[in-house]
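User: Before I run my own analysis I want an independent prediction to cross-check against. Here's the chain; please return only the structure tokens and, at the end, one sentence I can use as a sanity check.
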Amino acid sequence: MSGSTSEGAQDRTGSTSEGAQDRTGTSEGSQDRSSSTSEQSQGRRAGEGVHVRRGRWAAAAMLAAAVAAGAAANAIDANFLASGWHTVQRGEEASDITVDNFQVHVHGAATSTQLEDLEVVTSPGAFVVVDLSYATTDAWDTPEEVVLIDEAGREFSEPSGFGSAGRVWPAGPDIWSRGSLLFEVPADVGDLALELRPQTPDARLPSRVLRVPLTVRTNSEPLTLERPSVLAEGDR
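Assistant: Structure tokens:
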């Protein structure tokens, strides 16, 4: 009996040990599955993080490109509107210059603080009278605009309140007329140039303008305006 009891105890001990080992194996399998599941989850999260970062980088790149394109467009627009896409043709006094359909001859200019206009008018700055002749090459026409420009790029147009004298006039094909244009400038103005614009500069239409540096003499007496008159053939 003691032998049977001992064998039974051994059988139970063996069974218990094997069951424990089986349970240990089951635990190890669970740990393996848990570890595998954790690794897969971490891999998915890492992949999602990469996709998110890539999406953010792509969005940032697109935003930067849009900002750069907008800045370039603004720069182009600014330059476009400032210049009007016009070409400046340089000229000299006492010579015939053709710009578009106009032939121009600038004789010179004079300045004074006073102007004779029925009565003497005094300027807080200075009056400038430009003596010039011009004609066209094809048909009767009038320059759209004539201005004075100083070294700083400031423009001065004809002052108001002086009637038709001192303004641009119509000219015909090879029919030269000579007259004077009136301007008023501040006292601190420097060197001046006359700019004749056959057409008003327009950002939508390329154009050409004529710019002639002026030799301006100073008069102590009031300036007078000469109304335009048609010249004899060959005269300027």
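Sanity check: The CA atoms of residues 141 and 170 lie 5 Å apart.
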